[in-house]
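User: Before I run my own analysis I want an independent prediction to cross-check against. Here's the chain; please return only the structure tokens and, at the end, one sentence I can use as a sanity check.
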Amino acid sequence: MPSSLTHAVAAAAISATFYRPGVPKRVWIAGILCSMLPDIDVIGFRVGIPYGDFWGHRGFTHSLAFAALLAAILTVVVRARAQISSFALFSYLFLATASHGLLDAMTNGGLGVAFFSPFSNRRYFFPWRPIRVSPIGVSRFFGAKAVAILHNEILWVWLPSLVVIAAVMVSLRFRERSTAAR
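Assistant: Structure tokens:
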């Protein structure tokens, strides 16, 4: 799995594509939290749930069904006075949550991602897996290995995310200038 910070960076890039003036910060924060929440399943290691089980790491909480369920619940909770359509809000929260599993499927370690759970617990990786897997647990992350992992994540996730954010910002400014010139 990429680090939690990298999942948040990916969610920030997704939020840029949904940005509209007047949308409260809580909407963007909800998406960032959604992008990190699937790793709640690591609690299973402490209570004896095997990695490959339904509730194991990269199981149900990494699935598209979980992303849809979480997005639906949060759309109802966050929607009030959000100045964003329910469809756009659901789409943003779904993509932010689903991005977690998508990034995990691009890593070079673990058992893969159960995208289709609860219907199938089969685990998948993408054929192209450039992201180095981050160790599970904060204490295992820090050290010399962390520098190499962060360097890899910056290259494969952060930089592309910054390109998306910059492209959206340029597009918005261009649109504002076009509208002002009329």
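Sanity check: Residues 34 and 73 are 11 Å apart (CA to CA).
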